[in-house]
Specification:
The protein has 320 residues and is of the alpha/beta class. The strands form three sheets. A five-stranded mixed sheet has the order 3-2-1-4-8, with helices on both faces.
Length: 320
């Protein structure tokens, strides 16, 4: 059985794309970050960008004395992994887009005709966090607070897909209060905090909070409150023992996690309060998870080829 080479994990976010090339030993060989194409309803520009990232990764792999053997691609929104389609992505303006097919065609056009694994960014990130954090028992939720807001449930090490619809907590409309009518992610996300603070980024908003800016402070506090509401319902419904908070906003560490822990406990009186931890992989979880999907695809291909070889060596009896 031939040795496997490197894999490229590509995580498409609402504002940026993260790509990570890893070797067979898990060593990071290269990382790239580029902006996500805007006004790209058919994902045609995205396909070109991913193909360019793969060409660069293939070159780096050769320099390292190995090959690029597979690409894993994960995208946000409602994703049908089996069909390779983005059912709906509000932040990217996609609706029923055959993303896997588009990217596969672009890869072939550049001569990078390698297997392509396709999946959901948050579910892939959850896979990365659970596998590295020893959280493969009970119910764990991975919640990246990024451009938008979503979650992924992992039950005894298995990611819950819900036919692509599981975990879309950011799309729920707030029924009452000062934010009535808004979707949860329009208040409780890194993108929302930046926008509502008048800051150019979530990191800039965080710095304004630390400096005591009242507008940024209000946006931050309201984010924490709405996020705590969503996480309380998620915990009470699924019985989570751990919530892993990731995405850009989690980079602020205690500034987010400390008040969120207090707010969550306040909402879960009489219910087990989960441990609230920052993501081990930060905002790289999606790219790492995409690489894991690529490795899984290679492993299945190798197993299938092995079974075919075994069948050729030992033909099955065929009844007349």
């Amino acid at each position: 059985m031939a040795a496997r080479g490197a894999v490229l994990g590509v995580d498409v976010g609402g504002t940026g794309i993260k790509a990570r090339l890893t070797g067979t030993d898990g060593q990071v060989l290269d990382e790239q970050r580029v902006p996500t194409p805007r006004d790209d309803p058919a994902a045609e520009s995205l396909a070109v960008v991913v193909a360019e990232l793969a060409v660069h990764a293939r070159s780096v792999a050769r320099q390292q004395g190995t090959t690029l053997d597979a690409v894993g691609l994960v995208v946000p929104g409602v994703v049908d992994e089996a069909a390779g389609r983005s059912v709906l992505s509000v932040n990217l303006g996609w609706q029923d887009v055959p993303v896997r097919q588009r990217v596969a065609e672009a890869l072939r056009a550049t001569g990078t005709d390698v297997p392509l694994a396709f999946g959901h960014d948050v579910r892939a990130g959850a896979l990365a966090e659970v596998q590295s954090g020893g959280l493969d028992h009970g119910t764990v939720a991975f919640v990246p607070v990024g451009t938008g807001l979503a979650s992924a449930l992992v039950v005894d090490g298995r990611v819950v897909s819900g036919d692509g619809w599981a975990g879309e907590i950011g799309q729920v409309r707030i029924p009452t209060g000062p934010h009535a009518g808004l979707r949860v992610e329009e208040v409780a996300s890194a993108g929302a905090v930046a926008r509502r603070s008048g800051a150019p980024s979530a990191h800039a908003a965080m710095l304004r909070v630390v400096d005591g800016d009242p507008v940024a402070r209000r946006a931050w506090d309201e984010c924490v409150a709405v996020l705590a509401d969503a996480l309380a319902w998620l915990t009470a419904t699924a019985g989570c023992h751990t919530l892993v908070i990731g995405g850009g906003l989690a980079q602020s560490g205690p500034l987010l996690l400390d008040p969120l822990t207090v707010a969550l406990a306040d909402r879960l009186v009489g219910v087990r309060v989960p441990a609230l931890v920052g993501a081990r992989h930060g905002d790289a979880a999606g790219a790492i998870g995409a690489a894991l999907l690529a490795q899984g695809l290679l492993a299945r291909d190798l197993e299938r080829n092995h079974d075919l070889d075994h069948d050729h060596d030992h033909p099955r009896a065929v009844s007349a």
